[in-house]
Amino acid sequence: MTSGRCGRTRPHLPSVRRPAHRDRVLVGWLAAALIVALGAAGCGGPPTAGATPAPPVVATPAPVASATPGVAEMTGIDLLFLSMTAGHTEQTLEIVRLVRDRLADTELRTLVAAIEVTEADELATARDWLAQAGRTARADDHTGHGTGPDQLARLRTAVDGEVDAVLIEVLSAHQRGAADLARAHLAAGTDERVRDLARRIEQSRTAQVALLAARPAAAG
């Protein structure tokens, strides 16, 4: 209780700030959810059988908004998502750049080029938001949450007639992992602008997996 200028006693208003331990609990929950989700997606393993054929046309994902979330509004769980997204996206770019000039399917080349542009923009956004909060994309351990070295080696050593099929297999599993990561954040994230990024990532990666499944090389 505190006294005002007129001698009246004013009640002490409790702080609305989220307890620090709750952020730690949420971060732990998201980390566990991400491990389970990405493990279920195979983390670069073979795609799930019976994938649903893609629709003939899927709209290009909207550009990432440039507005920076207020640092005070982002919690540990938002920063963890941004950090893991940055690491996952860096690997997406590595995957597509390994084989983009060797693909035989022209439509697959177009899709891969669109993925590269979209994810380079998203990576810049994630890094910028992390920098605003005094963090880097390397602040969290991403080990085991992306495509493994064996899968990257398959891309490097694939012969010309198999490059399309290997890319579709590896990239589909990788993008399913990104969609699962985004879904996990939508269930637990706090900052609306970070959640909007997660929502757009979930939608675009899901559409990409469908388009990859529709390419002729996927049938092999």
Write a structural description.
Pfam families: DUF305. This is DUF305 domain-containing protein. Helices cover 60% and strands 2% of the residues. It is mainly α and 220 residues long. The chain has a domain at 80-220: Ferritin (Up-down Bundle). The chain has a two-stranded antiparallel ribbon. Helix 2 (76-99) runs antiparallel to helix 3 (106-132) and helix 5 (163-188) runs antiparallel to helix 6. The model is unreliable at 2-27 and 37-66 (pLDDT under 50).
Brief rundown of the structure:
The protein is mostly helical and 220 residues long. Helices cover 60% and strands 2% of the residues.
Furnish the topology, listing elements before pairings.
Elements: E1 2-3, E2 9-10, H1 20-41, H2 76-99, H3 106-132, H4 149-157, H5 163-188, H6 192-214
Antiparallel strand pairs: 1-2
